[in-house]
Amino acid sequence: LLFLSETGGKDRRSGLILTIPLCLEQTSMDELSVTLDYLLSIPSEKCKARGFTVIVDGRKSQWNVVKTVVLMLQNVVPAEVSLVCVVKPDEFWDKKVTHFCFWKEKDRLGFEVILVSANKLTRYIEPCQLTEDFGGTLTYDHMDWLNKRLVFEKFTKESTSLLDELALINNGSDKGTQQERERSIDLNFLPSVDPETVLQTGHELLSELQQRRFNGSDGGVSWSPMDDELLAQPQVMKLLDSLREQYTRYQEVCRQRSKRTQLEEIQQKVMQVVNWLEGPGSEQLRTQWGIGDSIRASQALQQKHEEIESQHSEWFAVYVELNQQIAALLNAGDEEDLVELKALQQQLSDVCYRQASQLEFRQNLLQAALEFHSVAQDLSQQLDGLLGMLCVDVAPADGASIQQTLKLLEEKLKSVDLGLQGLREKGQSLLDQISNQASWAYGKDVTIENKENVDHIQGVMEDMQLRKQRCEDMVDVRRLKMLQMVQLFKCEEDAAQAVEWLSELLDALLKTHIRLGDDAQETKVLLEKHRKFVDVAQSTYDYGRQLLQATVVLCQSLRCTSRSSGDTLPRLNRVWKQFTVTSEERVHRLETAVAFHSTAEKILQECPEQPEAFNDMDQFDEIEAVGKSLLDRLTVPVVYPDGSEQYFGSPSDMASAAEHIREKMKLVSLKKQQLRQPEATTPES
């Protein structure tokens, strides 16, 4: 094609002009023949009927080559060629031409051959139909024509092949059964070339052809398109129309195929999720039915369940993605797929929600079991602590500590009651959940497993109840013992208080009960008060004795050694003996004082004229003896059984009492003297 072309020019018969430029180099006749066949295939039959005018440019070639080319035209295109113009070089072939006359061979060749110079070629062909190489004005760019022709050939080849492929694909999609349609599409689904690229190439080619038809050359000279270009335009348009039609159908087929593929992928993924959840997922839950027998066991089961939930979460994520894809397809509104999509969505949702409910139920059951075992462990620790407290022997220091211990014991028992109540509530809640497990049996009979769980829960609650009952019995015993100990400490404290009271009475007796009275009447009143005072002391002593006797009984009941028998009781007896001795001394002094004051007052109140007074002088001696005896007692201390001594009051108090007695003794002595004086004067008279 680089050396042979149709320039687009026409001869006077409107036949196409074919130019064969020859060069100095060797020309391949085979290539020239093939090229001629190709060029002659381009025009329509109507153009071929008008014949060709062939211009053989031999100005740069040898005569024998020119002759060979002309003879070859006889074999290649004898019917289509009407005239062959051989352009000769100036004065170069003159002698050789005489040896071979083409015009004589016209009948044998089938066409007329003329030798003509380039400047005389216009005699046979109009200048406007000749290129500049031959002195004409026809604008022709061989490389441009060649490139456009290559583009057209490529487009024609690709579009034709693509039309066949698309037709095969589209026709295969119209077959009767779904399986045949899918099988046909699978075999011829992808075209060998990109339809978009071919369509773009065709549009660009058509645009170029149409533009060349209406625009002039660069030089502004009017130019008419070649017949091959005019012929190419309807071919290109027809191919483009066919391509667009088939490509539109192909896109619909692809869309349907894509939708079907997407639907199949969704269906496949849905079945994967369903099969896993109903298969391995459900099997995992079937093997997990226990609740554990301790906190650690329940926590281990929870950890295992979390691993199962983690595996399920991956499939639930796939479920969410699939659900979104199905929702998008449902919103697309393809009625033919709505039923199938809704069925897939419903199946997927049912399985996922059922499995999620089973996981949640299992999680709640394990959480309830963990709480039950946690409460049971706390209650067990409380019972252990209470039992440990009850097993330790009570050895408190005083009643307050016993009261505090008893209060602590009651608080612990109350805490145990609350703990047992909480355990029962947790246990009953757990039993209720287990009883509902039949509806989540995962396709398995869980009666045996549930029975083990129920027996375990009930066993734990019964064991805690028995332990609590034993602790309550022990608490009752301990409470009684501690109350007795409180009573014991109270008795000991009260007995010690009695000793203190008795000691205070003794101290008061010694320090404040020192007056002997100024006369007999007052002394008798003091004596009566003293007897009442002694009665109070006696009551205090008896109260202390009773308390100490009660401590002995309580100690025997508690099987413990009473501290009162070795401490309080001797103190009580010692103080009481001291009080008794002191009281007797006080009574003796008061009685002596009564006798002294009574006799003294009697003597002092008698009249001197009474004769019997002179005959009773012995009473003066008696009262004097009583007074001296009383004075002596005031100076003598009280001697206790243990040899200790104690004085009544202070020395000044005793001196005051003694002084009063001495004064009265002086009055009695003075009275005695008065009575003796009359007796002495009577004999003298």
What topology emerges from the helices and strands here?
Blueprint: E1 5-10, E2 16-21, H1 29-40, H2 45-49, E3 52-57, H3 63-76, E4 81-87, H4 94-97, H5 106-109, E5 112-116, H6 142-173, H7 178-187, H8 195-214, H9 227-287, H10 295-332, H11 335-391, H12 399-435, H13 447-511, H14 520-558, H15 568-605, H16 618-635, E6 638-639, E7 645-646, H17 651-681
Parallel strand pairs: 2-3, 3-4, 4-5
Antiparallel strand pairs: 1-2, 6-7
Written account of the structure:
The structure is a single chain. The chain is mostly helical and 685 residues long. The chain folds into 4 domains: 3-138, Phosphatidylinositol Transfer Protein Sec14p; 140-168 and 193-212 and 222-277; 283-473, Methane Monooxygenase Hydroxylase, Chain G, domain 1, CATH 1.20.58; 512-674, Methane Monooxygenase Hydroxylase, Chain G, domain 1. The chain has helices at residues 29-40, 45-49, 63-76, 94-97, 106-109, 142-173, 178-187, 195-214, 227-287, 295-332, 335-391, 399-435, 447-511, 520-558, 568-605, 618-635, 651-681, and strands at residues 5-10, 16-21, 52-57, 81-87, 112-116, 638-639, 645-646. The protein has a 5-stranded mixed beta sheet with strand order 1-2-3-4-5. Strands 6-7 form a two-stranded antiparallel ribbon. The chain starts with a strand and ends with a helix. Keywords: Repeat. Pfam families: CRAL_TRIO_2, Spectrin_SESTD1. Belongs to the SOLO family. InterPro entries: CRAL-TRIO_dom, Spectrin_SESTD1. It comes from Hylia prasina.
